[in-house]
Fold these 4 entries.
Entry 1:
Amino acid sequence: MGSLRMHKALVGQGKRPAMVPHTLSEAFPSHPTDASAVGFALSRLPCTNAPILWVQDRLSRKEAGRPALAGMPTDRPVIMVDLSRAADVLWAMEDGLRCRSLGAVIGEIWGDPPSLDFTATKRLAMRAEAADVPCWLIRRAASPDLSAARDRWRIASLPSAPHPHDAQAPGAPRWTLDLFRSRRAKPGQWMATYDRAADRVDLTDAAGDRTLDPREGAAGRRAAG
Amino acid sequence: MRERQGDAPPDDVPVVLAREGQHGPVIHAANRTARIEGILPGSRVVDMRAICPELQVAYADVAGDHAALDRLVLWARRWCPWTVRDGNDGIILDTTGADHLWGGEAAMLIEMETQLSLLGLTARLAVAPTWGAAWALARFGPVRAICGPDEAYFKLGPLPVAGLRLDNSTLLLLRRLGLKTIGAVMDVPRLSLTRRFVKAGLQANPLMRLDQAMGKQAEPVSSVDAKPVIRVQARLPEPIFDPTPYLPDLCEDLCEQLKQAGQGCRRLHLTVYKTDGDVSHVDVATAAPTRDPAHLHSLFRDKVERINPGFGFDLITLAAGAVEEMQDKQICLDGGSDDDLHLTRLIDRLSAKFGPHAVTRPVLRQSHVPERAEAQIAALAAHPDKGAVMTKERPLRLLDHPEEVRVLYAVPEGPPAQFIWRRQTHRVARYAGPERIAPEWWKDRPGTRLRDYFKVEDQTGQRLWLYREGLHEDGRGGNPRWFVHGLFA
């Protein structure tokens, strides 16, 4: 594909400029058993040693497994909270976002429970921005209904990059990223290659090389989702 | 004074308590019948069974006995202000100036024996001017022996040398020297004893022990202080059904008490006493000692609803448990917030609401079997050891239980070309592997099959961690089966 180009929304991942506060992002995996959304969320977290609060509901754990420490890109401590109801997951996430010493809060909610409405996501988003802690909501088997999440992603796995030494083996994972609604940046679609050794996501525009958008670099516009 | 715990087995049955020794269980203590049969503490249980086939063996609770004796030390403060535990089976009471309150020393000993027997304890008591003399008289002297200030020489003389609190090798040495009683040791010239035991420590030095027993060498009783009970209560004029309005004040008062004592608590016990005589408890725990009233109050947020008020209650008590020393620390000079404190409070709140088992922290362990490579420990527990460094790629998600797949199209080498998992057909486009993980024979049952792990990528790009359990004709079951165990990013 073409040249690697960072989108504004993704510039300086890990070492983000101090201006942009952390906020609530939602990720919708294309398939419940697709771990690409988790991988992408982890790759976007700031590089610190602060612990991650990871809250799962019962169905997410049962259907999509639990996060495995051995497979995580960095060895930062994880505090797992295993709950059964979505309302409890939201409560625990909101409570966790009161604690500024956490590195991130990641919640996994299955389906579209009635407790996960616009108000609940708005509370999470405002708490995350007040505490400046990144918060990710990973929603499996869910429909992207009304939500106050500042960034909303649809993420799916793609066939991986060729392995440098073995043609038979899958290489670096590739994902399609679809930022379909964003408060701070222009929505768009990319193809991402994840470099596991460097914990870095390289982006390629999904449509290949094009001329640079003249509005690129201007203030982010608000897009409807 | 000496006490033994009596669970009241019949006196004519030989009963022993056992503890784990280096080569199997050894006798910890024996009752009177067993000792008459020739059973010695410290010998092995199997040997003693050979001597006495009808021996009954129960396991000793050494730590429990220890704690019970510590409580008994405080309980014995009713007779005198200074008490201290003596070894594993004794209590020393400094009754100087206290005996006349009980009508003299003899009456005091009878009173003590009565009270201890009401607790179900057998006690052997003695009064003596020194710790060492009391120790010897209680164990080897007559019943309720009383030794006056100048009688130690005559009272101790006929007792065996074992009454000098010496270790076994020294006792053996004294027996070989022909010194069988304390009086015989007393008659040996002092110079000879000094020369013989010049380098021996206190446990092995009969002269120093003798001086302690005779009062020539001081051995003061250093009494321990009882921990103050930190508890507040609210007596209500009439029965109520909801303790919530009283909780903030109770927490404030409790934390004020804790602050004055310089302590913090890790447990809180809320007890309500109902009008019909019933009692309900609510307990909460914290991950680190605290004395912050707002935080303690928040832990009760959803718990008080679980109290069944019945016809109402008129007394609420709040007691602090697991009290620890706690210092106020200033973390940074500019007065910034304490990050660790916030994290422990968050874990407290989550554990109080969802239960301590819901909040865990996974840590790596030294194992190659994926489900054993990770352990769940309490969220703030210390990390015991560092796990193995993984050189192979591991999946980002791990299923709790590996799920069997139905193989549609098997190939002789590598993973199946097509399989059905969760009612969806996956066609393997690329794969890496196998990585063979053998069963851990020191943990697994015999017959556990080895696993060959493959990282496979299907036609849509989904990457799974697939394994084959066993090999063809490995003698551990039929054809090998295939399982999905994890998901790669």
Entry 2:
Amino acid sequence: MGGGGCGRRLAAGLGRGGGKAAYAVYNQSISIVPDTILSCSGLGFVYPDHGHSVRALKDVSFEVRRGEFVAVIGPSGCGKTTLLHVLAGLLRPTEGSAELFGKAPGQALSTALVFQENSLFPWMRVVENAAFGLEMQKMGRAERERRAAGMLERYGLAGRERAYPRQLSAGMKQRVAVIRAFLSGAPVLLMDEPFGALDRQTRLWAQQELMELWGAERKTVVFVTHDVDEALVLSDRIVALGPAPGTVAAEFDVPLERPRGPLLEPDAEVFELKRRIFACLDLPTGSSRYSYAP
Amino acid sequence: MKTVVALARSGWLVALLLAGWEALTRFHALDPLFFPAPSLLLVTLGRLIASGEAGRQVMRTLERTAAGFGLGVAAGAVVSALLSVSATVRRAFEPLIAALYATPRLTLLPMVMLLFGVNDLARVLLVGLGTALLMMIQISDAVRAIDRNYVDMAVNYGAGRAMVIRKVYLPACLPQIFTALRLAFSRALVMTISVELLSSQDGLGSMIWSAWQTFAIEKLYVSIALAGALGLLSQRLFEELERRVVPWKDQST
């Protein structure tokens, strides 16, 4: 299953039969016209730093449609996190504009953040953390904790509701942070390398769980990562930023059938897509003269 | 049973030292005039408790400590709140706080007495000053050390300023506030006893000084031991309080 825009793009892209059918169902049930809910145009951001300012973003333009899962990928230090902070309304762009539902970002309850680390409040129990978004919406304690507990139970955290974050593994903590974002009711989720600090096995499981949640809850997601495989497994579309100061180098549709397994069975299409992304990011695409190949 | 085990675990060294001391005085290896046997000190303690003197002096010291500590915590909290809100205020106050904090507080006793008279108000104010300074320094450090992520997260979920303070700043600072409270109380106790030693008619400090002046060696030992016990007990109380109020903190470290 995928976002609103993908069905349309699929026809022009590298489509496959199975995926087409799945997208078509979604398009009919949710919205006929794929509508843009988030857009950046000419977005730039400069950190003021006593005299020598640091430019993090330059002329970033892209759009995200309702229900779409967009991965933002780029080398470290290219301003991915800054971009996410702008979309969350925590930073105001110094040039150009970002719009969420036609307004400046930062409106209450429009976005929900997930960070790589320290997403959970250490002083709140797991259930309180998961219900934080609902609490900020003034929902009563009993009701919000009932909902959070239900969600926690469904995603393998039964019996951990009363624990504190320090008693959870890193993977579990991120799972709670993701659950909180989905529970909050915010239509747009902004994730900043949420699985970046997890070991490889845990990360693969976390990706599959995120896909399951996303399949059930239908949110628009902007997912920052530097891992090309992760972007391919999760997203409908990949926005690639070039090195600092970040600007959009290219966009790639990911017309792969859902649900996708973690393996992305290698075929010519996936390989070609990956090669293009690697080339765009200036990553090595073949054995170089430095390789140890015999 | 648990308490017995805990006592044995932390008290064996003290017990061993006391036993050694007792033995050494019994065999006259130590001069009992300077090192009265612990058993004798225990009798003296019993006598001081029975006469009500120990209780009265301890209470006087505790009253002054608590008054100074309470005053200092309140003042420290108010000033730290102001410092956290405004960078302008912080820049203006910081050198003053640092300078006062680095000054040995006891040296300010004559000045405080000059201004407020030789009375309990002066003593309590001096005790409170130390507490307030410690609280200010610890709290403003704690506020500055808060991970931006937590604030961003709360704001993003729709928390207003008051909510961010209640849900992020206060709980995030709480462990350090408790450390500051524990430290501040023990320093307030030390300060009170020092002030009493120099200028007071009652309290543990004055008891220690008058015991020295009258060469009541057993009483001298007992009153110093009482001061130590008071310090130890108050630390344990604050630790227990912290365990209850800050349950999310990893207590093993």
Entry 3:
Amino acid sequence: MLELYEKTAIELGELLRTRQVASVEVTRSMLARIEATEEKLHSFVTVTPELALEMAAEADRRISAGTAGPLTGIPIAIKDNMCVKGLRASCASRILANFVAPYDATVVRRIRDAGMVILGTTNMDEFAMGSSTETSYWGPTRNPWHLDMIPGGSSGGSAASVAAGQAVVSLGSDTGGSIRLPASFCSVTGIKPTYGSVSRYGLVAYASSLDQIGPIARDATDLALMLNLLCGHDPMDSTSVPMEHPDFTSFLGKPIKGMTLGLPREFYSHLDDPDVSRVMADARKVFEGLGVSFVELSLPHLDYGIAAYYIIAPSEASSNLARYDGVKYGHRAENFDGMIDMYCRTRAEGFGAEVKRRIMLGTYALSSGYYDAYYLKAAKIRTLITEDFKSAFQTCDAILCPVAPTPPFKIGEKIDDPIQMYLTDVFTIPVNMAGLPGMSIPGGFSSTGLPVGLQLIAPHFAESRLVQLASAFQAETDHHLKRPPL
Amino acid sequence: MKITDKEVDYVALLGRLHLEPEEKTKYRAQLDDILKYMDKLGEVPTDHVEPMAGTVELYTPMREDVVRPSLSIEEALSNAPARTGTSFRVPKVIE
């Protein structure tokens, strides 16, 4: 018999609507699980038991009144870079350590309207800049499968909390892999939707042309429920696309026979980790058994993705983070000499090392004399990467590739070597550059028991195809059902 | 080195970051490594490629010109590090 905290949203929804269990009981189970495991993991920046129980009681009233939806009463954790009115949104930075959101992000409003239960905000790399959740001002999150390992980043707390049963589902944000990488490293299912599918209103900006909010869950079924809730046009975000999204749950359990998956040569020739190679080969066999065929293809500019990304993203960040000036909100230095010095010292005290590094890099790339050589060049490479994907999708329905070149690595291993850390995202970054939807699903484990994920990439706005493929894969495999020994 | 000490100072000032001497040394070395890595972009011919700033086609949405609720003065000031009455308080700008 599973504990309540081990169940998925679809299972809990059924128990809630048939009145076998109340949301308050489910929420208490999650809060107790957080209490029992949080000291080891540190998934959360803020846990909000009072708010959660209040929201759960309200959800129970809605269920009694017969006005409940599929996610009413389901507990969720939200990344610390999204505004929840009345809660701290620190972005895991000292500069916003005391910032209390004065309004709700659009995704949070949707969560409230659906009657979901907010458990708190989750730990992350500072301003979502990182691949390991080690750059958090509040200290690192640990991987639930192995406490000496990083959980991936930047949405490390969101992935670890779902893997550990601290939350049923969570929200992350993904600029270069920040949902898919931690989902892979924690053995949960996560999707970065197409750029423009989900409103970014109320998400603290890092690199606005790449940032995208998405859900993390235990399986494709729960992801489909969350996509139904999150996708849709928002007049408050001018990059959100006005279009009708399908009912993603109608793609669950649908056969995938006859589909073609693309295998990009450049991704596979990069692989020298035997565990990742084995997991990819096993996944191929599963899909083959489901009637899928494969086509080898080429994404020739893969190798330039990281270099182009680390020009574009820091450039946008250097501009976006100019707002932290110690005037309107956030930390202000106490000792300074004049206005400019106030800005400089406030920002020196408020930002951590990686954020400063990216501000410097972006400022340099945009500065006069270097703009053409760096930013403009990178923006052209971005076009080439996007065209690569466009021609790839002429020959396949989706692309199957690894999420990361290796399983999770040790805390501290790459923190002082920025380029090695950046290379972790070699397979995820191109997807953001092209604005495509990408999903990470549990693919198995390394010989030492560490999670390894698979990545599926689809054309723009074909999230439903990813749901269909993941759901078929998970019906044949049990990797997503395994839980970490905590 | 691709980046000089002077450039590090200049970029830090543009980015409004006060750096301690040891930070300058560290960032200069790290930025130098990163910029060397970026050199590989030079291998790709891009003379006839259009640059791309984003992935969705942006348009100018129109809406009715109606007053809508927004943050109150109190809410807008609620996170200010320093305030006077209904204003943000800042250090003296004009000497």
Entry 4:
Amino acid sequence: MNTLTPPAPALALPAEAVAIAPPAERSQVMSRLFGDAISALATVVTLALLVYAAKHVIDWAFIQSVWPGADGGACRAAGGACWAFLGEKMRQILFGIYPPAQQWRPAVVCVMLLALSAGSLPPRFWGRTLGVVWIVAMVGAVLLMRGGMLGLEAVPTASWGGLPVTLLLAVCALGLGFPFAIVLALGRRSELPVARMLSIALIELIRGLPLVSLLFIASILLPIMLPAGMSIDSVLRAGAALTVFSAAYLAEVIRGGLQAIPQGQGEASRALGLTWWQMTRLVVLPQAVRAVIAPLTNTAIVMIKNTSLVLIVGLFDLLSSGRVALTDPAWPTPYVETYLFIAGIYFAICFSLSRYAMWLERKYQRTAAR
Amino acid sequence: MNAPQPSAAVAIAGMHKWYGDFHALDDINLTVKDGERLVICGPSGSGKSTLIRCVNRLERHEQGSIVVNGVALTDDLRKIDQVRSDAGMVFQHFNLFPHLTVLENCTLAPMWVRKQSRADAEALAMQFLERVRIPEQAHKFPGQLSGGQQQRVAIARSLCMTPRIMLFDEPTSALDPEMVKEVLDTMASLAQDGMTMLCVTHEMGFARRVADRVVFMERGRIIETNTPDAFFDRPQHERTQAFLSQIVH
């Protein structure tokens, strides 16, 4: 082709294209913003409002604000944000009413769970070893929080609070809920009538109940139903309720993935002599889960935020320990600052998860590319 | 494992299958000798695919008997597994596992069913991938290959289980025309090596070149069985004549 094309036009063509493209794009933006009188007016008014709002926010957050180091009186006197409150109450918000001298323990738990979560992201680390590490870490986290051994002061779960409770409940709900969800999803598609009916009944029952009522059932009805003298810890009960709830929702997402697998995949597996379990584990589930990464992430994010509902059964998660911190009479009640801080933590966790899921999806799409 | 007829790879007698009221296979009697290459042809819906899918129990037959390498197919799962690991199958739509590389597709069953080590399974897989002339694609994913390449991988994947019988279910029907030859050549070279083969195909040229016997089916019945020369040049049954007259070579 090159040998047939005269050199002059070949050079001229790209130069022309480069010369024309940029102004076309700029004029499009300008015409959208200022194309006619109404657009121009809307643009000017919107900009004015933005500038006005930004000025007030900056004024509140930076200029008239009280920075850490000051006390409650300074906050009352000032007109801006009371960041001093966050500095003072940071530990109470993060760790609740856990004994202050022992707060290194929940801090270690938080760092450990977050670090392990980050370390679990690359698919090449997935495997049996990682599962064992997680189980050891979760048991270790609970023991470290509880104490009463190895010279650690015992701290009842009633005194637990803040970020470690949120993280423990979220990991429990998703980590235990996911395998449970796989069993339910497979059960719902099973050819065995008993397994199918049980799965459908469980999924529909749990999906039909609001999470709040499920938490109430777990925290109030369960102790009544159990024989006298036997009791289950309140964190455990809440964890169980969240696990069951997330399992029912995750199961329906996974079922969607299972339905997307062509019949030929099962036929090829059987023709090769794989057993049903081998086929499910090696061929069907990996494909089914990859097909539903986006909705799975959605459910996971919803579940992480749902953990804040445990406050209704008397547990202090991150959100409710923030609310408790606000009741100190020595300080004004800077709701906005406190909730911004807590929202920041939730957002950091959920946004990271969402970005991670997008990365996973792209990675798997690349391998499937034609 | 003591085969009553050591020379029979597949022995089917008085076999019937129904889908609801539809009589899919009607009194099938067929014996395939060890090393024999059988081509099954016939119009669509005649039951040819169903027939070979009964041989490895992807479909359950309702009446009669099927004995594969001396193992009678019943509801006994161990016997079904035994037959399946001895009979490889190649599908119209390849059915490769899209989430695994070509090499992993080939090593999956040997590692999990035959309990081979990864090293052994990979060595064997590379040997068969060379055999179907695509060793350089071993680390690609199926979605990155052409249809013909995918079907050759599917053949290699089956061969990795060192089957005694190969079942081909319209292996070239989903391929672009220019890719049919590479797959048929692979199958022909397999036939040359003495593999027992049951092929459902519309490739009459292949049937003539490779088959020891050609079976013609219609409406769930075997109408005519003959050597390729006799089948194509002197078809006995009028239905066979009508079918052959409609096929453009």
